[in-house]
Amino acid sequence: MTRLLPKRLWSWAALLFGLAYFILPLIGMTEFSLKMRRGVYSFDAYVKVLEDPKFQETFSFSVFMALFTIVFGVLLVVPTAYWVRLKLPRLRPYIEFVTLLPLVIPAIVIVFGYIRLYNTSSWLPLTGTAAGTNLLLMFGYATLSLPYMYRAVDTGLRTIDIATLTEAAQSLGAGWGTILGRIILPNVLVAVLSGAFVTFAIVLGEFTMAALLNRPAFGPYMQLLGANRAYEPAALAVIAFGITWGCIAIIQLVARFAPKPATPVKDL
Amino acid sequence: MTTPTDLTGPLPPASRWRLPLHWLGILPFALFVTLFLFMPTMKIVVGAFQSPDGSFTLANIRGLNTPSILGAYWISIKISVASASLGCVIGFAVAAAVVRGGLPGWIRSPLLTFSGVASNFAGVPLAFAFLATLGPVGLITVFLRTELGIDLRLLGFNLLSFWGLTITYLFFQIPLMILIITPALDGLKREWKEAASVLGATSFQYWRMVAFPILFPSLLGTWALLFANSFGAVATAIALTGSSLSIAPILLFAQIRGDVLGDPHLGYALAFGMIFITSIANAIYIWLRARSERWLK
């Protein structure tokens, strides 16, 4: 026991250091966000932020973008991951490698490519109109969330026997649409949801792509506010942290109902 | 999804035609990644080696060889190396403490959840959190000055600097390390530890001669991932420093916005340099991961 004690002390020290590192900035931003009124703590900064019409505009823009990105991502990833597992298992490592590329290629480089490739004088002038740019931004977000979405769905598919389910559905006369929509999707819904919430968190805070494509998203708004105000940015940081925390909490909650937990951690 | 349901004709020729049709199922995905991942990247790579009239040239790459651009790359690499290395060491220490250090078991699950949140809490809000903590009037800065009489500014500390960015990036690097290395630590079999102690090894010898060599590929591999992670980070840096600190992604951001280098093709070369550096880091990661998986099954 005497030999165990120093080891355990050392473990506690490492853990406490880690905790202090994470908790101090959170305390710092929370405390700072409450200091807008001189001498007393108040929610003035939050009121200012929430009342700002720009906040409401950019926030709802980003929420809409996130929802569209999730729908598009699910429609893209679920059939692909299903098909690869069912019919093209030998391609799986290659597809997985491709889905991980957005972690390697910095987002700023990808969006630079978009601007050069889809500008007004190109064959597909997406950046010519606001709707086209929004579409391009959504594709960019879908690319950024691809590693998480694909991994989550693929892990979900691993826990069910898709070959048997597919054959059973086919012998009852189901077409591919029915199989995907009514058999596969409900079975991997938990995995899809966890991918969806990571996507939501990514899109809501994303800065680089939205700023360079000049869209009125929440990320550039936060940056602009940070450059011009003192207390409001801290309030925004608290709100953003709350949203991230909420997304991850929902994933954990949802994963509890899964046959096997499929948390989309950032490992490769 | 778009593939025809069943192929008519039970004859052998039909099965011969099956294979090509299977490929149609991943056509939407292939089209998407081609249009929005491969082609944009290739555009940058090709553009880096093209002169304005479209012919092949190395002039753009040579154009990177100016003190300001090399300086921007260099400070980016320094920040990425420092934040990846410290992230690995601290993250490993915390994960090892929780998995192997005899701490109560209930700590593990909240720690992993928290790591999931913190590793996703990057970008602009993270910069705000650190400004409110270590900025000129931040919580810790003020506490140290008024309570302990330590003026960080006089000590030469500035959040808008190499160390400031490194400390800020560590906020998402450490949790990412914890998330990745915890499964690897779980993979260390109890038998190895027992075998080592039966042979008379001390705890230190076990770590140095058994556990560490097995974990080494995943450690180095995760390091490469953390490196790429901070090398490409734009939002935190811009929100933290504005444009006062010239690192590679900020320089590229300014170049895309307003052609500050005065040469569009130099922008391609700058972006190509960034892909090149993160690709090297990740090639190491992929190679080492394949090696480490042999042991951790």
Automatic annotation (TrEMBL), chain A:
The keyword RNA-binding does not apply. It is a multi-pass membrane protein. It is found in: Cell inner membrane. Its main location: membrane. One of its GO terms (biological process) is transmembrane transport. InterPro entries: MetI-like, MetI-like_sf. Residues 59-254 form the ABC transmembrane type-1 domain. Keywords: Cell inner membrane, Cell membrane, Membrane, Transmembrane, Transmembrane helix, Transport. Signal peptide: none annotated. It comes from the Bacteria. The chain crosses the membrane at residues 9-28, 59-82, 94-117, 123-144, 188-213, 233-255. CDD domains: TM_PBP2. One of its GO terms (cellular component) is plasma membrane. This is Putative spermidine/putrescine transport system permease protein.
UniProtKB/TrEMBL annotation, chain B:
It comes from Hoeflea marina. Belongs to the binding-protein-dependent transport system permease family. CysTW subfamily. It comes from the Bacteria. The chain crosses the membrane at residues 20-39, 79-103, 123-144, 156-185, 205-226, 233-254, 266-288. Pfam families: BPD_transp_1 (PF00528). It is found in: Cell membrane. The keyword DNA-binding does not apply. Residues 73-287 form the ABC transmembrane type-1 domain. One of its GO terms (cellular component) is plasma membrane. It is a multi-pass membrane protein. InterPro entries: MetI-like, MetI-like_sf. Keywords: Cell membrane, Membrane, Transmembrane, Transmembrane helix, Transport. Coiled coil: none annotated. This is Putative spermidine/putrescine transport system permease protein. One of its GO terms (biological process) is transmembrane transport.
